[in-house]
Amino acid sequence: MNYTVKVDNLEKLRIGCLVIGLFTDKGYTPSAKTLNEAGDKFIGKLFRRGDFSGKKGQTLIIHNLTNQFPDIAAQRILLVGLGDKDKFNETVFEESIEAAFKQLTSTGAKDVFCTLSEAPLDGRDLFWKIRQEVIMIEHCGYQFAECKSHKKDDMNNKLQQIYLKAEHRGEVALAEQAIREGKAIADGMTLCKTLGNRPGNLCTPTDLANEAKNIAKQFKSMKCKIIDEAAMEKLGMGSLLSVSRGSEQPAKLITLQYQGAKKSTDKPIALVGKGVTFDSGGISLKPGAAMDEMKYDMMGAASVLGTLLSIATLELPINVVAVIASTENLPSGKATKPGDIVTSMSGKTIEILNTDAEGRLILCDALTYCEQFKPKQVIDVATLTGAIVVALGHYLTGVFSNDEKLQQALVEASKQSHDPAWPMPMDDKFDQELESNFADMANIGSRWGGSSIAANFLGRFTKNFCWAHLDIAGTAWQSGSNKGATGRPVPLLTQYLMNQSSSKHDTN
Ligand code: BES
Ligand code: MN
Ligand code: ZN
């Protein structure tokens, strides 16, 4: 899709479709006002006759405009309900874009002038609205068709050009930057979704490693290094290797380095991703229902790769190193058994009481591996616990940290990017549950507070870092008829890194 900023008034505009938002009450946006006047109180009549109420998500396409609107040169008008003006928020804004673009796919419009950015949104400026429009439009156009023998053709493939409304000439440069950012974030999300939606047989640890190499090839600023099981053995990654033991697919440790800062010596921010390409639970086998969704157990890895694509596209002046631990978790005669004790790269020993708590087992070695990069901060991203879904649902990502400032900065970035996240507690009480009679620690505690216990397990390996952990088990994908990866938390992470790269004075 091509995006261009436009300040023109909607009259005289030769275009496939005008998109205009309407609130339920009288608050007309400038374009709604123009339309109302151009069409002899057209909107007032529409409301009075009961053909349109403006309730959120409602759409109406108007054809044959010449008689009703002699001054409007567009082929169609698409009205979109924005709901009550005083209840208008980020979610309604996004839903209205979604409603509009779903509707547009059933038309033959080739180009569109979207004026939804005119709707006033508390605390959000034009820049934010344009950026979010681009992200949502790309999201609406996304489909995972790689494995269909007949590509779906219900999309309006004719739609190629979107004009996005800005008020004044003076806003154009900023709005263009918003388009660039929106496109970069959307591209990162698309990569993240596609890697996630691929089935486990087509997205193995080796496949993920190849994807990382491909990303690195696209940018001079990136380099990629893959570590195989023999090298892991040498490094003493007994914990990571204990998870891959049951699988025929070899584990991979992927390092993708992005140098955006002028100096390669600037300390990087490390992003660590859980890349379990299928989690059956291992010998502690999961129940069968919805087990297919455990192909999404690599969304931490996918979102880290997506974020690197976004920041490299934006050429952010910052150094970032991504470390991804990737493996399958399967049962077999060779698989790790409950009660087995392994030695992690840090030298600490772990009693594996449940082979289904494998995420922390691979992340602890990836975190120790990070030490060589002397990172100024480490953020790991993982579909780590079912417990976080109980706590925060499918709406919020859980943010754990050993540094309150970092935790707050991540929550702030989640608000800015409207990729919601919430601070979660780390407390010694949770940590005590990891005591083992036979090793330095067990890999599980009790059921209650499971996501905080898991975070504390990771916390035992990050004492030397300013560290945060994002548990995305509830937010990385959707189940049911809309089953699919969401592309989260690419917006949060990209926003966080943008904030970091613009606040150089930050000593963190
Ligand atoms: N990948 C799962 C977490 C998960 C479960 C994500 C459901 C999304 C939906 C993780 O490896 C796991 O199995 N965690 C266990 C830990 C338990 C054994 C302590 C869990 O949450 O049940
Ligand atoms: Mn598991
Ligand atoms: Zn898992």
Describe the structure.
The structure is a single chain. The chain is of the alpha/beta class and 508 residues long. It has two domains: 2-167, Leucine Aminopeptidase, subunit E, domain 1 (3-Layer(aba) Sandwich), CATH 3.40.220; 186-500, Zn peptidases (Aminopeptidase), CATH 3.40.630.10. It is 34% helix and 19% strand. The chain contains 15 helices and 19 strands. The chain has helices at 30-38, 42-49, 90-104, 126-141, 172-197, 205-218, 229-235, 238-244, 299-313, 359-369, 387-392, 404-416, 428-432, 450-459, 490-502, and strands spanning 2-6, 17-23, 59-62, 77-83, 111-114, 161-165, 222-227, 252-259, 269-279, 319-329, 341-343, 349-351, 377-382, 397-401, 421-423, 441-442, 467-471, 477-478, 484-485. The protein has an eight-stranded mixed beta sheet, sandwiched between helices. A six-stranded mixed beta sheet has the order 1-6-5-2-4-3. A three-stranded mixed beta sheet has the order 11-12-16. Helix 8 (238-244) runs antiparallel to helix 10 and helix 9 (299-313) crosses helix 15. The mean pLDDT is 96. Zinc ion is lined by residues 276, 279, 297, 358-359.
